[in-house]
Design brief:
Blueprint: H1 3-18, H2 24-34, H3 40-55, H4 57-69, H5 80-94, H6 100-107, H7 115-122, H8 133-141, H9 145-155, H10 157-167, E1 173-177, H11 184-193, E2 198-200, E3 207-210, H12 220-223, E4 227-229, H13 232-241, E5 248-251, H14 258-267, E6 272-277, H15 280-293, E7 298-302, E8 318-324, H16 339-342, H17 345-349, H18 351-363, E9 366-376, H19 385-394, E10 398-400, E11 415-417, H20 420-423, E12 429-435
Parallel strand pairs: 5-6, 5-8, 6-7, 8-9
Antiparallel strand pairs: 1-3, 1-4, 2-3, 9-12, 10-12, 11-12
Helix pairs in contact: 1-2, 1-3, 1-5, 4-5, 4-7, 4-8, 5-6, 6-7, 8-9, 9-10, 13-14, 18-19
C-alpha cells in the first residue's frame, strides 16, 4: 500500500470536513471519485482513517495537547498542516495500534521530529487525566463536552462511557429482506450461495447482518431487489407500525423512502401507502428504489411544512401514520462521526418544537382506533420522551399502545429507546399511540 497517497487523501478529506464544514461522506466520495489511481485496499484505508480519526478526534486532541504541553507547546498554535499530520499520526497510534515509530513513518517525514509526542500519546498514563470529571469523560469517550454532559445527565456517566465506546466503532452492515420477493431464510440462502458470510439479526424478523466488508450494491441479489440496506433499528420502526394489507398508511417524513419500502413489504403491495416529505427531491430518490423492490402501492406527496393543503382529504382516514421526525441524529453518529463536531447544544434544542409541530399535524390524519408511531434516530430525552409526553398531554384522544411485538424481546411497553451498546442497533427511539376516539 502506498502510504503517501493514502495520507494525502486522508488529510485533504479531513481538511474539508473540519475546516470547511463538509459532510464526511460527501467529501470522501468526491476525493475518491477523483483519485482514480488509488487501489481498492488504499481506498478502504482512506475511508477507515477518515472515519476513525473523526470518531476519536476528541481523544486524539486531548492526548496531543497534554503531550505537547510537557514542552509548553499548544496544538492549536501549530501550523494547520502540522496539526493535521500530528492528528493523523496520533490516530494511527490510538485507533490502529501502530507503534509511535511506525505511525511517524506512515504520517511522513515531517512527523519524524514529533515522535517524542507520539511516544507520550502511546503511554497516556504519564500525562494524567483532567481534574474535572466531565472533562475527563469527554476526553476518554471522544465526545464534545456538551454531549458528554447531556448524556451523563440523562443516562449516567457509566452508561455514557459504554454508549460512546459503541459509537466509536464501525457500524454493522445490515439489510432488510424484501418480503415481496423472498423470505429472510431464502435471502440468507441466496447470499450464502454468493459466498457471503451473513447471519440473521436478533431483533428484526427481516434483518440480515454481513460479516466482513461487502459492496452490497454490486450484488446480483441487490440489483434484483431481494433486499434493502437498512439498520436493524430502522427496521423495528417499520415493524412497530403494524401495517397490514389493504390499509391506508402514511409515512409522514419519508425522505428517500427506506421505511416506506419496509411498510409496503408488510402491506404486501395491497392498500394505499402515502409517502410525504417537505422535499420533493428526496421523494424522487424513492422511485428507482421502489421499482427495484417491486413496490407499486405507493404515492409521493411533497408537503410544505407550513401548509396542510395537501393533507386535507386524508384527515382522520389513515389506519397508520408514521412520524419519523427530523432530529439531531445523535443516535447515528457511529455512521456520521463528523456530526458530533458539527452539532452544538443549541442546534439540538431547536428540534423538539419542530418535532411537536409535525407530530400534531400528522396526528390529525389518524382515524379512530388508528395507530400513530413517533420515532427519531436520537438518544435525547428532550427529542423523545418529552415530545411524546407533551403530545399525549395535549391530545386526550390518543393513548399509549404497545410499541413492538412481544416476540422481539424488548418488552411490551409503549416506547423503547434502542442503544448501540445494548441492542447493537443505531440509537432509535420508538413510541406507539392509538387514537381512542
Amino acid at each position: 500500500m502506498r502510504a503517501q497517497l493514502v495520507r494525502t487523501a486522508v488529510l485533504e478529506i479531513y481538511e474539508e470536513v473540519r475546516r470547511e464544514g463538509a459532510r464526511a461522506d460527501q467529501a470522501l466520495q468526491s476525493v475518491l471519485r477523483r483519485e482514480k489511481l488509488l487501489r481498492s485496499v488504499e481506498r478502504r484505508a482512506v475511508s477507515d482513517a477518515v472515519y476513525g480519526l473523526l470518531r476519536l478526534q476528541g481523544r486524539v486532541d486531548h492526548l496531543l495537547q497534554r503531550a505537547l504541553g510537557t514542552r509548553k507547546l499548544a496544538l492549536e498554535k501549530l501550523a494547520t498542516p502540522t496539526q493535521h499530520l500530528l492528528r493523523y499520526a496520533a490516530y494511527l497510534v490510538v485507533g490502529e495500534r501502530q507503534s509511535p515509530r511506525s505511525a511517524a513513518g506512515l504520517a511522513g517525514p515531517e512527523v519524524t521530529a514529533w515522535q517524542w509526542a507520539l511516544e507520550l500519546v502511546a503511554a497516556p498514563g504519564d500525562l494524567g487525566a483532567p481534574d474535572d470529571p466531565l472533562d475527563a469523560l469527554a476526553a476518554e469517550t471522544s465526545l464534545p463536552r456538551w454531549l458528554a454532559k447531556l448524556w451523563s445527565e440523562q443516562l449516567g456517566p457509566a452508561e455514557t462511557g459504554a454508549l460512546a465506546a459503541a459509537l466509536n466503532q464501525r457500524a454493522p452492515l445490515t439489510v432488510r429482506a424484501n418480503l415481496l420477493k423472498n423470505t429472510r431464510d431464502e435471502l440468507l440462502a441466496t447470499l450464502r450461495a454468493e459466498g457471503l458470510r451473513v447471519e440473521p439479526t436478533g431483533l428484526s424478523p427481516w434483518g440480515v447482518t454481513f460479516s466482513g466488508r461487502t459492496n452490497v450494491f454490486a450484488l446480483r441479489s441487490f440489483k434484483a431487489g431481494l433486499f434493502e440496506v437498512q439498520d436493524e433499528g430502522s427496521q423495528l420502526i417499520a415493524l412497530a407500525c403494524e401495517a397490514r394489507p389493504g390499509q391506508l398508511v402514511v409515512d409522514a417524513c419519508a425522505g428517500a423512502g427506506g421505511k416506506t419500502l419496509a411498510l409496503a413489504s408488510e402491506m404486501r403491495n395491497k392498500g394505499r401507502l402515502v409517502a410525504c416529505d417537505r422535499d420533493g427531491r428526496r421523494l424522487d430518490e424513492l422511485r428507482p428504489r421502489a421499482r427495484r423492490a417491486g413496490v407499486h402501492n405507493w404515492e409521493a406527496r411533497a408537503v410544505p411544512e407550513s401548509s396542510d393543503a395537501r393533507l386535507g382529504e386524508l384527515s382522520e382516514m389513515a389506519d397508520v401514520v408514521l412520524v419519523d421526525a427530523p432530529c439531531s441524529g445523535l443516535g447515528a453518529i457511529r455512521r456520521n462521526p463528523d456530526a458530533r463536531w458539527r452539532l452544538d447544544e443549541a442546534e439540538v434544542d431547536s428540534f423538539p418544537p419542530r418535532q411537536r409541530e409535525i407530530l400534531d399535524r400528522y396526528a390529525r390524519l389518524v382515524r379512530p382506533s388508528g395507530r400513530l408511531v413517533y420515532a427519531t434516530c436520537s438518544i435525547n430525552r428532550r427529542e423523545n420522551e418529552d415530545v411524546r409526553s407533551a403530545f399525549l398531554a395535549a391530545h386526550p384522544d390518543f393513548e399509549p399502545a404497545p410499541v413492538l411485538p412481544q416476540s422481539v424481546g424488548l418488552g411490551v411497553g409503549s416506547e423503547v429507546q434502542l442503544l448501540p451498546h445494548r441492542q447493537g442497533t443505531d440509537g432509535f427511539y420508538i413510541a406507539a399511540m392509538r387514537r381512542s376516539r
